[in-house]
């Protein structure tokens, strides 16, 4: 399993140029493909979802040419899709699947549209019902109401009223509206039920307008695509930065001091998720905004929890769920039922992973309530699962301000933000770590403990973990050569370090692990890669604020390669043997200098 380990962060500050908006990118690509004339698109998002759309357009015979650095040239087909028979694979890209379904159903042709398993669990029946009212021939290949779909040419009857549900996903309405100019006649779409995620419809209407189609509308209930509407290329076009992606960095500024500034979205944005900044401001964050940038800072008095109807910012609201960990009082996110049909069931996933960190969560059909940790119950270092959901990975990165943590499958951010974790590390500052390496008995343990005490830092005696593994294995009857079994012992080690004392499963073992026998056992088990891997996150979990002194031979190379300071402390074998000899004598244990020297040289080797 791929993972990224994040140390506890202590501050955030900096400026970030945002990647292009996913929602705008995929809408622009489709409309450019359907339009008359060539469109040059700049700052297009490079991500999994846009890659799926680009592939699909190519399969449909649309000429798309990469010009480098996020620029693309798309030769529009003027509504006549060149390839009339194709099978399209659209991954888990809802912004590709729904609008392409609508456009291809009205364009006429034999098409099959498929996605990953999760895409086949995300409902599409309401859109299909809308298309069928226009005469489109759309069939389900597996489960009624869900992809994959089969489309066939049909006689389209435009010029009427189409009714479509608006309370499951706004993408159904988006898909229909974007496709309707292909139908030719004046057609009205009436929304049944309360329309959710309205700001995404604003993006749809604004993008259609850029391509020359003005939708007439009455509130959020009725939308009319006029007679003779057709898409015409605007020539060239810039994609705004992604406002949902901005939310993580604004939250970082609000949690980690700031200021953190994002460039590419601002006051003039057409994306509803810029209103995430208002939610942060309600929590107390200090927000500044320009036409094309937003900046967030932490308030002097700290953030406070809020209750918010999140219907207008369904995606960015996920960021609030983890921002809530750093606010005073409970945060309650309401009207988020659509989370349940996104990349994963986001309410369930969020509740489960927050629970792992030790957070008290109350989840319902359409709400989530998060209680922040307290000094008595701080966040626990844990490995977080991300459910192939980019927003789970990005949201949980914020929790690093409360605890070191491991995030599984960080590559899933590629859906919208391929280099998220690099950008994250550019604006955040981890707690400092001093790594002290060196051979056995060089005094690194003594020095490390004293430096940690002097600085008020945490202290990691990594050798003790190997010694504990050897001791626990001995107690469990596992041989010091049995790599598989030892790795399990290491992974399940019930070790505790408290006030300079060491406990194994509740029993004080400080002296037991200092014996020469356990030193020998530790040396054997430490040579096994599976044991070292099993102890890696356990060691990184010590990397907490205000700082850490880590003692052990791979501290600066493997465990904390980005350590603030790396020290290699050494002395001759004779001097080290003498130290060990004195230590053992003081502890009242039998000791022979010549034997100790020979053993120590052997261990060095
Ligand atoms: O520092 P120490 O003597 O307590 O270490 C016990 C054993 O564990 C020793 O053989 C070195 C090994 N060790 C290691 O391989 N990597 C570490 N980070 C720390 C100790």
Describe the 3D structure:
It is a single chain. The chain has 605 residues and is an alpha/beta fold. It has three domains: 3-18 and 242-429, UDP-n-acetylglucosamine1-carboxyvinyl-transferase, Chain (Alpha-beta prism); 22-238, UDP-n-acetylglucosamine1-carboxyvinyl-transferase, Chain (Alpha-beta prism); 433-570, P-loop containing nucleotide triphosphate hydrolases (Rossmann fold, 3-Layer(aba) Sandwich), CATH 3.40.50. It is built from 20 helices and 33 strands. The strands form nine sheets. The protein has a five-stranded mixed beta sheet. The chain starts with a strand and ends with a helix. 2'-deoxycytidine-5'-monophosphate (DC) binds next to α14 and α16.
- The fraction of residues assigned to DSSP E strands is 15-25%
**CATH secondary-structure class of the largest domain:** Alpha Beta
Distance between the termini: 33 Å
CATH architecture assignment name of the largest domain = Alpha-beta prism
- Class per helix and strand makeup: alpha/beta
- Roughly how many Å is the radius of gyration? 29 Å
What is the tally of beta strands? Answer: 33
The biggest beta sheet reads: 5 strands, mixed
**Tally of separate domains:** 3
List bound small molecules: 2'-deoxycytidine-5'-monophosphate
Return the average pLDDT rounded to an integer. Answer: 95
- Looking across the biggest beta sheet, what order are the strands in? 16-17-15-2-26
CATH topology of the largest domain: UDP-n-acetylglucosamine1-carboxyvinyl-transferase, Chain
The poorly predicted ranges are none
CATH superfamily of the largest domain: Enolpyruvate transferase domain
